[in-house]
Amino acid sequence: MLSIRLDKELENKLETIVKQTKKSKSFFIREALKEYLQKLEDERLKNKKEALEYFMNNPVDTGIKELKAIQKVKSEKDIH
Q: Concatenated DSSP letters for the chain?
């Protein structure tokens, strides 16, 4: 069981649609929540996909070992 509080304007809109359609308040709240959660999930997956595509298209060619080797060579040049 879930209890929610609605502001008066939203409650009035819900009451109006309930009377027009003869469907329950729970029906509309459940459907709205499903749609909202699906949009959130779609956005989350879209962001993950975009991040993956970015890293697939922009690979990092220099690994940590190579970077350290480059830094070592540069520091040795600075000494000489």
A: -------HHHHHHHHHHHHHHT--HHHHHHHHHHHHHHHHHHHHHHHHHHHHHHHHHS-----HHHHHHHHHHHHHHHH-
